[in-house]
Specification:
The complex is a heterotrimer of chains A (486), B (97) and C (483).
Chain A (H helix, E strand, L loop, with lengths): L7 H9 L5 H19 L2 E4 L1 H17 L9 E5 L26 H8 L3 E6 L33 H8 L5 E6 L5 H7 L2 E4 L19 E6 L2 H11 L29 E5 L9 H16 L3 E5 L7 H16 L18 H12 L2 H14 L5 H21 L5 E5 L15 H5 L6 H6 L3 E9 L2 E9 L4 H14 L12
Parallel strand pairs in A: 2-3, 2-4, 7-8, 7-9
Antiparallel strand pairs in A: 1-3, 4-6, 5-6, 5-10, 9-11, 10-11
Helix pairs in contact in A: 2-3, 5-6, 7-15, 9-11, 9-12
Chain B lengths: L6 H10 L9 H15 L23 E2 L9 H4 L6 E2 L2 E5 L4
Chain C lengths: L6 E12 L36 E2 H13 L3 E2 L2 E2 L2 E4 L9 E4 L6 E2 L2 E5 L5 E13 L3 E3 L6 E5 L6 E7 L6 H17 L12 E11 L9 E6 L2 H20 L7 E6 L4 E4 L12 E2 L6 E2 L2 H10 L4 H10 L5 H8 L2 H13 L3 H18 L11 H12 L5 H12 L6 H7 L8 H14 L1 H8 L5 H12 L6 H13 L2
Parallel strand pairs in C: 14-15
Antiparallel strand pairs in C: 1-12, 1-13, 3-7, 4-18, 5-6, 5-17, 7-9, 8-9, 9-12, 10-11, 13-14, 15-16
Helix pairs in contact in C: 1-4, 2-3, 5-6, 6-8, 7-9, 9-10, 12-14, 12-15, 14-15
Classes of the chains: A alpha/beta (486), B alpha+beta (97), C alpha+beta (483).
């Protein structure tokens, strides 16, 4: 069996049949990381020893027949999830030496289910970015073409899975940070309903938007991972106290009669024609599977980017205030006084994009501007939510492009922040509304992966995954791998 | 829309955010901020009178925990990342009130 | 100090009361005071990356108790906000507080003014928030040490309207709040440990001015005395500035009790835009009507109501009634004494006299009192029934205090201390005394009443205090008036 791009589901079978051992599998990925990651830079840290030790324990479990659903499955975790005793950097110089004293709930759940963590993946600093160029640890390169960005902010998690360096990975999505890199690397990435997965131990960017989720090769793999990441956590007041369905069951049911909303605001002038072609073809596939396409409008979509770039920076300006060089994190050398300690530690510890967003957020909350910016953005947020509530009275799923373009060259938009922000134009509304959304591979544009975004109603990850799985039963896009250079 | 942030505002914002104000970078920073604020300013055209702000997407209510000591504190483990920690205290340059 | 002629003062107080919960408001770490530095600060209190707050239910119980006690409106839905500023003792760079939707709105507190009349001080609001840590300036030269044990201790901040017109009223109001909080047992009221701290907003204006003057906020006053002094010094300062033709700027000041002055806090001068916004890590708190009703139903009788009852139903003096009502457990004790003795006046005397002085002497609280209220009540009843004299009662009281006996009546019986009320047993003693002291008897008969004490004392001596002094008195008069 070729392990490089095997799905998690296939690996579960292979491990159970003892076709491969957890140790062999882990070693296989570690070898690939050694060989390929110098080019890709998808990992910030690799815990080879700990991973092999965990693999050894997994093999004992197989020998004893005492396995859990993910026993022996090597995954990578975005370096935003705290793992006790391990370096957790959030892609920042500020935390470049930070050893977490506790473990994120969702990482703990995955470990409990048997998953092995190979390492922590690269990301835009504090998850702020759409290209993974904002990392203190350097940019991540797209396995499909190392000259290109992998998307962001979960760019390392996307590149690692796409390059076959791990079976699957975890990401976080605040305005599209799972979906957009999944689209650009040809993966299936899911941002669940806000609150589905605990945020405890996940370093915050924008608390009311941040949501963890799986990045995988198939909808089925994503469904399995979600089952083991989701669930109520009393440590996170915003985590939903709702039962976690068996998402991986029922994927095979037909989607005949499924009403798919095609949102006209998602097909605007900024959309790359090649991307649009792939999306239209994907919609035709859905029709052929018995789904009905319904033309819908989410009228407030054009305001989503504006509202997002007020709310997310506002929350981040407070969330990142704790990084003051006192209890942990980077401290400047020889501070003259307290103000100097604060300003230089933060000035030197944070990258430019982070500092810019902190300033934007500080502005949006400041006296005299609060009503026109922060309060107004929250009102628009309600309008955007209402758009979805209204739409889901008529449709089951909303479909459209994940991102306006395929992956673009490194450095291309680095000097044009607004263009970079518009990368998230299709993903942000679902984040603001808190509804689940995912990206699945839906074709190639100029030889690069195109993502189809599927948005579901609150807590309806099941139907969403089912729609994605049915598409993947009818198409081969998800099984394409990067060119043979890798 | 006119530039909302000028150098004076930038100094104030930097102070509030505990970030250094760097005069040599101030023009670049101002341009970047004003560009974002211009993008964000597009929302000013929407009529949102009579709309209630939405702070949490799911609009649920807080659950409350029982009053019990559930955290065990290991100061050594929690202070392992501290740049200047001794005798159980975190140190900063002398604060003058 | 009196207010200079032509001026009036307006004071509003912000009182920070630590609520006496076991665990912190947003974490499960202990709130115990006096532990080694940073040993009570968990990852949440330290504001570590990725940690999140969770809300202690008990703080809402206590805040609602307070709110209902001052006749306030309870906001069924209250919310938390972030107040942003940088300070080393504020680990997250923001304080979680309640800005727009506080738990308690309105209410009032009655105080007694200098001229003895009652006055209402309006409470604007009371909201829940977290305490900050402590800065230690004298441990290491050139450095400030940070101890975050206190960070996250629940606070109820009680904000008054500027209804307070002088320092005495401010102290009376602060004491009334202190009494109410401790009475409700929502705050331990320990001023030395910082359980109650005051910020005073002070402004002065000309007697005829209609609007408030420019105010200064004096931060962190931790005793009634400092509160009083700070108001004196600050009003003096403001008036002298204005009388010299100067103008005041709104500022935040610290009181220096050694130098008898307030001074502007330079460190906070620049950053005063707190940029409040809804705390996105917490959801709005919705209290059910049932939750609030339950607290209302279990609310204790309040000090004012209790004092009123003691005056009307038990005919106690205003001062007795006030004293027995100020401490809830003392009042409860007194009420229990009254279940076994109907003589409230006597019960009040015993409790505020002998009992409280014994408790003070041994530094005991009423809840640790070795004499049960039932026993004290029974003892008072024995006096009222004439079974024992007041003098014997002192001995019985001592025996009860040292727990030598199960009950007052047991002790009296065992030691045969019953008063001799049988006239036939006392009369021969009196006859003998008159015979032995003819001159004194004659003088007494002639109207020298002082001598009555002499005879009564002799009889009491002879009966080892068991005679009823009033009865002895009557019998002596009867004997002397006999032809």
């Amino acid at each position: 069996m070729n392990l490089d791009f095997a799905t998690l589901t296939d690996l579960q079978k292979a491990l159970r049949n003892r076709a491969v051992s957890a140790t062999e599998l882990t070693q296989h990925y570690l070898t690939r990381i050694d060989a390929l990651d110098p080019t890709l830079n998808s990992f910030i840290s690799v815990q080879a020893e700990a991973a092999l030790a965990a693999a050894g324990r997994a093999d004992e479990r197989f020998a004893q027949g005492d396995t859990r659903p993910l026993t022996g499955i090597p995954i990578a975790q975005k370096d935003i999830f705290c793992l006790q005793g391990q370096k957790t950097t959030a892609g920042s110089k500020m935390l470049s030496q930070f050893i977490a004293p506790y473990t994120a709930t969702c990482s703990e759940k995955l470990a409990h289910a048997g998953a092995i963590t190979l390492g922590k993946t690269n990301m835009d600093e504090f998850a702020m970015g759409s290209s993974n160029e904002n990392s203190y640890f350097g940019a991540v390169h797209n396995p499909w073409d190392p000259q290109l960005i992998p998307g962001g902010s979960s760019g390392g998690s996307a590149a690692a899975v796409a390059a076959g360096l791990c079976a699957a990975s975890t990401g976080t999505d605040t305005g599209g940070s799972i979906r957009q890199p999944a689209a650009m690397c040809g993966l299936t990435g899911l941002k669940p309903t806000y609150g589905r997965i605990s945020r405890w131990g996940m370093i915050a960017f924008a608390s009311s938007l941040d949501q963890a989720g799986p990045m995988a090769r198939t909808a089925q793999d994503a469904a399995i991972l979600l089952e083991h990441m989701a669930g109520h956590d009393p440590r996170d007041s915003t985590s939903l106290n709702e039962p976690v369905p068996r998402f991986s069951e029922g994927l095979d049911n037909s989607i005949r009669g499924l009403r798919i909303g095609v949102c006209r605001e998602f097909f605007t002038e900024g959309l790359d024609p090649a991307v649009e072609r792939s999306i239209r073809e994907a919609l035709a596939v859905y029709e052929s599977l018995g789904a009905t396409l319904v033309d819908i409008s989410l009228p407030h979509t054009p305001y989503s980017v504006s509202a997002y770039y007020v709310i997310a920076p506002a929350e981040c300006s407070a969330n990142l205030a704790r990084f003051d060089g006192i209890r942990y994190g980077y401290r400047c050398s020889d501070p003259e006084n307290l103000q100097d300690l604060y300003q230089r530690s933060r000035g030197e510890g944070f990258g430019e994009e982070v500092k810019k967003r902190i300033l934007v957020g500080t502005f949006a909350l400041s006296a005299g501007y609060f009503d026109a910016f922060y309060a107004r953005a929250q009102k628009i947020r309600r309008r955007i939510k209402e758009d979805f509530v209204n739409a889901f009275e008529h449709v089951d799923v909303i479909a459209g492009p994940t991102a306006p373009t395929p992956a673009f060259p490194l450095g291309e938009k680095a000097s044009n922040p607004v263009e970079m922000y518009l990368q998230d134009i299709y993903t942000i509304s679902a984040s603001l509304a808190g509804v689940p959304a995912m990206s699945i591979p839906a074709g190639l544009a100029n030889g690069l992966p195109v993502g189809l975004q599927l948005i579901g109603n609150y807590l309806q990850e099941g139907p969403l995954l089912q729609a994605a799985h049915q598409f993947q039963q009818a198409t081969h896009w998800h099984s394409l791998t990067p060119p043979e250079a890798l | 829309m006119n530039n909302l942030v000028n150098e004076k505002t930038l100094v104030e914002l930097s102070t509030l955010a505990a970030l250094p104000f760097e005069p040599e970078k101030s023009k670049a920073t101002l341009d970047a901020l004003n560009e974002v604020l211009a993008l964000v300013g597009q929302m000013q055209s929407l009529d949102v009178s009579n709309v209630r702000p939405l702070a949490h997407p799911l609009e649920r209510h807080q659950s409350l925990r029982a009053d019990a000591v559930t955290e065990t504190v290991d100061p050594d483990a929690l202070s392992q990342n501290a740049p200047h920690y001794e005798a159980g205290l975190y140190f900063v340059p002398k604060v003058i009130e | 100090m009196s207010i200079p002629a032509g001026w009036q003062i307006d004071i509003g107080l912000e009182i920070h009361a630590q609520l006496n919960t076991q665990s912190k408001i947003f974490s499960g770490a202990s709130t115990r005071f006096g532990q080694s530095a940073n040993s009570q600060a968990c990852a949440i209190d330290l504001g570590m990356p990725g940690v999140l707050p969770s809300v202690n239910a008990e703080v809402f119980v206590k805040a609602v108790q307070f709110g209902l006690s001052i006749g306030a409106l309870i906001n069924q839905e209250s919310r938390f906000d972030r107040k942003n500023y940088f300070y080393p003792d504020l680990p997250k760079g923001y304080q979680i507080t309640q800005m727009d939707h506080p738990i308690v709105l309105g209410g009032k507190i009655t105080i007694e003014t200098l001229d003895g009349t009652e006055k209402m001080i309006r409470v604007t609001r009371a909201h829940l928030e977290e305490d900050a840590g402590k800065s230690i300036h004298d441990f290491k030269p050139g450095y400030t040490g940070i101890d975050l044990n206190r960070a996250g201790t629940p606070l109820l901040e009680i904000v008054s309207e500027p209804d307070i017109k002088n320092a005495a009223e401010a102290v009376a109001y602060a004491k009334a709040i202190h009494q109410l909080l401790t009475y409700l047992e929502v705050c331990d009221g320990n001023m030395a440990e910082g359980s109650l701290r005051f910020d005073a907003n002070i402004s002065v204006r000309r007697q005829d001015a209609e609007t408030l003057g420019t105010r200064s906020e004096i931060k962190n006053l931790n005793s009634f005395r400092f509160l009083e002094q700070a108001i004196h010094f600050e009003t003096e300062r403001q008036i002298s500035v204005l009388e010299a033709g100067g103008t005041l700027v709104q500022d935040t000041r610290l009181f220096d009790p050694d130098r008898h002055e307030t001074r502007s806090m330079r460190s906070k001068e620049t950053a005063t835009d707190y940029r409040y916004f809804p705390e996105p890590d917490l959801l709005p708190v919705m209290l059910t009507a049932e939750f609030i009703e339950n607290i209302q139903a279990q609310l204790p009788e309040l000090p004012g109501e209790r004092a009123q009852r003691y005056q009307t139903a038990h005919e106690l003096s205003a001062s007795d009634a006030a004293l027995l009502s100020q401490d809830r457990r003392l009042g409860d004790y007194f009420d229990q004494v009254l279940t076994s003795s109907s003589n409230a006046k006597s019960a009040a005397n015993w409790v505020r006299g002998d009992l409280l002085s014994k408790l003070n002497e041994h530094d005991l609280s009423i809840t640790a009192c070795p004499i049960s209220p039932k026993n004290l009540g029974e003892m008072i009843q024995l006096i009222d029934q004439g079974v024992i004299s007041g003098k014997i009662a002192k001995e019985v009281f001592a025996a009860l205090w040292s727990q030598q006996t199960e009950s007052a009546s047991d002790y009296v019986q065992k030691n045969q201390l019953e008063q001799v009320s049988d006239a036939s047993a006392i009369e021969p003693l009196i006859d003998a005394l008159i015979a032995e002291n003819p001159k004194q008897a004659a003088d007494l008969r002639a109207g020298k009443d002082k001598l009555m004490g002499f005879f009564v004392g002799k009889v009491m001596q002879a009966t080892q205090g068991k005679a009823n002094p009033k009865q002895v008195n009557d019998l002596i008069r009867k004997k002397l008036s006999e032809p």
